[in-house]
Q: What sequence folds into this?
């Protein structure tokens, strides 16, 4: 944090706001305020410069045309996302954070290169609930959400998976999402940070630069437990 307020950048919500992913910003704000921190969501629209002074940056999902438009705009402001930046992308946002993605029309687009990841269209669209076992970053806790994408993402040596798929498709090779330093991405919608509070708190810990007080919200944990119990059952 650069001052007493945590500034959460919501990047291009008008084009990367599919499936309620903009709700991730509200989740982060709420979890900060429950702990006594001040927080502010800073929307950054298409055509606007991306400030380099924000504490955390969020990218959501979008269709192919919106994704290409977002990538072209964000490449112009790549320098704003300094090595200290905390960035979280969902679905199209995950792909934009990578080095390259190919649309369903066969056209290749450069990403931001913040994750060592390339994406091409898969054989069929993944539309289902997605459950994964997280990496050591989250103590191997389960991750849950729903996916709706055609992309198959391949990680290079510079990124690690966010988790391993238990049910669903994820990246398409048994892994789910990607992490490099304080940059993370996932195919989980829901919004992802409402359904996975430990992931939300990991991002906040990175942004704050310090461990945060433990937070217990029994209602959230109860709903999360019920959802996971249902999704783990065989189809």
A:
């Amino acid at each position: 944090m650069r001052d007493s307020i945590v500034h959460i950048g919501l990047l291009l919500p008008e084009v990367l706001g599919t499936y309620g992913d903009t709700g991730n910003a509200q989740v982060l704000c709420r979890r900060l305020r429950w702990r006594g921190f001040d927080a502010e969501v800073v929307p950054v629209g298409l055509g606007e410069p991306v400030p380099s002074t924000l504490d955390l940056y969020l990218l959501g999902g979008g269709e192919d045309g919106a994704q290409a438009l977002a990538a072209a705009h964000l490449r112009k402001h790549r320098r704003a996302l300094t090595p200290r930046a905390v960035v979280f992308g969902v679905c199209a946002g995950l792909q934009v954070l990578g080095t390259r993605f190919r649309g369903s029309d066969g056209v290749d687009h450069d990403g931001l290169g913040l994750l060592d990841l390339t994406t091409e269209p898969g054989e069929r669209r993944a539309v289902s609930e997605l459950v994964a076992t997280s990496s050591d970053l989250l103590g191997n806790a389960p991750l849950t959400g729903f996916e709706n994408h055609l992309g198959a993402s391949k990680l290079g040596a510079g990124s690690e998976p966010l988790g391993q798929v238990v049910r669903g498709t994820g990246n398409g090779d048994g892994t789910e999402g990607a992490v490099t330093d304080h940059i993370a991405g996932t195919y989980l919608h829901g919004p992802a940070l409402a359904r996975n509070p430990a992931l939300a708190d990991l991002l906040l810990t990175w942004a704050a630069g310090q461990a945060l007080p433990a937070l217990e919200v029994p209602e959230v944990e109860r709903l999360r437990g019920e959802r996971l119990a249902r999704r783990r059952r065989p189809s």
In short: The chain has six helices and twelve strands.
